[in-house]
Design goal:
4-stranded mixed β-sheet; alpha+beta; single chain; about 15% strand
Length: about 270
């Protein structure tokens, strides 16, 4: 039996390697419109679920809007975008403070994440799903004041109504920077700030590459001294010493922050 199996396997391999088979695929474009008849059995199956969802949950009023709000009702910011940023802060800051003892300084989301409007009238859970249908997660990053300045440069270039909280930017008529502050305070380039955003943007979505920066390496058996945070327990690939044992110049050349800034520099060079 084993011999038969082996011979059959070899026979299949022989034919699969020796013959050139040309496959032809015919593809027809089928327009999806009202002319296509529905499958009554499928409709009968899901209709009770759809009816229950719409009547008991999705269309049930949970609030009321006295105005219609759109994400592009302003040139560089909008009421709807600002509301999204404020809501993200309100839902995230208490939990972040509980874990870290710190407050979120800035919220930055993306204009493309808002997919609908809030119409005047009743607001339902369906409205919320239509506004933000994506299953993104909120993440909080620690960025230096220098990185915040790079963020501001990005925002000047794209000229979109991204949802922002905590960061106030004033531009001249030519979109050059006039002034910027964080919660009313001048930006300190040597200070660390906590920025709430989404995992989508963290991965470079909407070309927000200033959030990216990765370092590969290993954890030593014995922690070393020096540096701050986790510097003493991380040895980058290709080195025999930890971040904590490196000089500031050595670390800055290979750190994830340096890599993130390199990506941002490439972005601006490409999009001059």
């Amino acid at each position: 039996m084993r011999s038969l199996f082996v011979n059959l396997l070899l026979l299949l391999i022989f034919f699969s390697c020796s013959e050139n088979t040309n496959l032809k695929t015919d593809i027809d474009n089928i327009k999806i419109n009202q002319d296509i008849l529905s499958d009554s059995s499928i409709v009968k199956f899901y209709l009770p679920f759809k009816k229950n969802l719409e009547e008991s949950l999705m269309n049930k009023p949970i609030s009321y809007s006295f105005e219609t709000y759109k994400k592009n009702d302003g040139e560089l910011n909008s009421t709807l975008s600002n509301m999204f940023a404020d809501a993200t802060f309100d839902m995230s800051n208490d939990r972040f403070k509980e874990i870290s003892g710190k407050n979120i300084d800035i919220v930055l989301l993306n204009n493309g994440g808002i997919r609908s409007i809030i119409s005047k009238g009743n607001i339902s859970e369906k409205t919320a799903f239509e506004l933000m249908p994506f299953e993104n997660s909120i993440v909080v990053l620690e960025l230096s004041g220098k990185s915040i300045n790079k963020m501001i440069d990005y925002l000047r270039v794209v000229k979109l109504q991204h949802p922002i909280r905590g960061l106030q930017i004033k531009l001249n008529n030519d979109y050059s920077l006039n002034d910027a502050n964080i919660n009313g305070q001048k930006i300190n380039t040597s200070k660390k700030y906590y920025v709430a955003t989404t995992d989508y943007l963290l991965d470079g979505g909407d070309k927000m590459y200033f959030f990216q920066g990765k370092s590969t390496g290993c954890i030593p058996q014995v922690p070393t001294e020096g540096g701050f945070g986790w510097d003493g327990i991380f040895v980058p690939t290709g080195y025999n010493k930890s971040y904590g044992q490196m000089t500031p110049d050595e670390k800055n050349k290979i750190s994830q922050r340096s890599k993130a800034l390199d990506e941002l520099r490439k972005f601006f060079q490409k999009n001059k």
